[in-house]
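**User:** Once you have settled down, spend some time on the protein underneath, comparing sequence with structure tokens, and judge whether sequence predicts the tokens.
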Amino acid sequence: MKKKVLAVAMTGMLLPVMAHAVDYTAAATAATTEVNSAVAAAIPVGILVLAATIGWRLFKRFARG
């Protein structure tokens, strides 16, 4: 009997918590905007590093003298 009363009491306490809907739209939009900005800023730097690495390896390969 005690377990049943405890289960009913806990269910009664959880229902208001479960019924409360949280809207994460604003937070998700802000996070997406920040990620997009960071990626847009990082792509040119990554391309520059990749080009410098490839250029250095080609120089080392063909400039033996």
Notes: Residues 25-62 form the longest helix (38 residues).
